[in-house]
Amino acid sequence: MPVHLTRRGFLAASAGAAAMHPFSLRAQAGQAHLRLMETTDLHVHVWPYDYYADKEIDTVGLARTAALIEDVRAEASNALLLDNGDFLQGNPLGDYIAYERGMEEGQAHPVIAAMNTLGVDASTLGNHEFNYGLQFLERALAGADYPVVSANVVTTMGKTPTEDETLVPPYVILDATVTDGAGEARAVRVGVIGFVPPQIMQWDRQHLEGRVEVRDIVEAARAYVPKMKEEGADLIVALSHSGIGPAEHEPMMENASVPLAAVEGIDVVLTGHHHLVFPGPDYEGIEGVDAEAGTIHGKPAVMAGFWGSHMGLVDLLLERDGEGWRVVEAEVEARPIYLRDEDGEVTPTVESVEPVLQSVADEHQATLDYVRRAVGRTDAPLHSYFALVADDPSVQIVSNAQIWYISQMMQGTENEGLPILSAAAPFKAGGRGGAEYYTDVPAGDVAIRNVADLYLYPNTVRAVKVDGATVREWLERSAGMFNQITPGEADQSLLNPDFPSYNFDVIDGVTYRIDLSEPAKYGAEGEVANPDANRIKELSFEGQPIDEDQEFIVATNNYRAGGGGSFPTLDGSNTVFEGPDTNRDVIVRYIVEQGTVSPEADANWTFAPMEGTTVIFDTGPRGTRYADQVEGVEIEPLGEAEGGFYRYRITL
């Protein structure tokens, strides 16, 4: 059953006066200005802190977003704050609560405590709310001082959505009070309904199968919106934890916000899930979407970035229409908590709100202790000093974790049973980053903060379906890392300084050699520069030459799967799985589950022999500790090089 309640004020009242919005100034008798604020994809980021890097940062944190919310409440008294989901998981604070402290009955979850402090009026569930299981979710939500709604997660499915028993209430009707242009207080009933991607049944099958089912987002909306109108909702706001995607509705689509906005009766769409910003250029050129005005099918919509980076704001000028209200004008923006200049320098636009920080201060400190403490062990040192010249343990552990994760995600899908490979690249490998810019985690205990050393970027996991011929071309593009080498000559420079190490993908699960006597097939921008070149030799799968027609699943990240690096055929069209988890989170989970990992390089790739030929390369000086452990290549030290590097020779 829906819940009816009166909106609470912000517990830490905002201070000071601010300029009134034009809608407030222009409102006449029978007209009122209502402001809707959105947070989305917080992923437990309350403090402005990067727990992986173990340092304060200015680009995240609900405590910073809270300052923007205070400003809006000061500008206009008629304001509602709505959260669009993915609040419960996504950084080490969330993992500390789930895996270390636990959630016993009666305990407060820190992100819920922070949102209580901030005075959230309603929220919906995102897909990450299910990552820790239903019991954990239930206990976390029990501490919320606001309703949490979701219309398409069902415990008992009826003949129609309105006959379902849902996991949480499908919607809520908020009784808000607004002041019209004549100064008269009036009631506005705001219906809030929530939706989550149906793909939760795939992403969290182990927690959900046999316990809940899901409805299609648009199907559920079409059923519930008329019911909400019958119960007196003047306005209906859709909390769509679903991205802005195709205009055409397809059953059980993940990113359904565009067809959802077309549902009759919905007035405003608050979106999320994509970790992008709307209005803005991220969504230019999509049918039904005005990326500048911030509308979808003419209705105001907003997406407030992620991790507290923005606050979404929808300003509505309402007018009495008979016994109810209608929207006569709207403005939309996503307000940032920081600005970034052309050089990448970040300037914060707000300071943290102290009551929000203090609401989770104890858990924040406990998380710092947690990330600095071992969560597992490694039998082998994890370093990248030789990652560009030989198979490497720091890349190996990423591949091991990706294969472990994607193997689970493919179960029960049409791609179950296809061989799974993994593509991973060394991110910290010297170059312009300097002689200290290398991964270096010694054998022994591994702490969560070490994962940032292994995987620099907050990419999310993807899987693509490709054939053997594409695997070969993928590796040909990666082999642009190396200069062409003349057979029989001594001490030629091996590494191409203009080729970024993050584009040097090693594909685990196949074996191959790289023939440096051939030119690179692909140029700097991924164009075919030497069509007859063939650097990849002896490419084999399970000991046999690879079948170029055989299908493979390759675990990778969203950057590569979506076309990053201009790899042949990788443009998003062959993506078969878009994971909700970051690659970093997957590595942490893998280490926690394994307890002790043994990411020893298996030398699945080497250079093809070239008699009488040597090459030289530079790496970090601390690599001397591991030089005698490099597999598959014969190297010898030559001494110090320019820029603080250390030089080695390889005999091919």
UniProtKB/TrEMBL annotation:
Pfam family, one: Metallophos
GO molecular function list: hydrolase activity; metal ion binding; nucleotide binding
GO cellular component term, pick one: outer membrane-bounded periplasmic space
Location of the 5'-Nucleotidase C-terminal domain: 439-571
Location of the Calcineurin-like phosphoesterase domain: 35-275
Any GO BP: nucleotide catabolic process
Annotated keywords: Hydrolase, Metal-binding, Nucleotide-binding, Signal
UniProt record similarity statement: Belongs to the 5'-nucleotidase family.
Protein name: 2',3'-cyclic-nucleotide 2'-phosphodiesterase/3'-nucleotidase
Lineage per the UniProt record: Bacteria, Pseudomonadati, Pseudomonadota, Alphaproteobacteria, Rhodobacterales
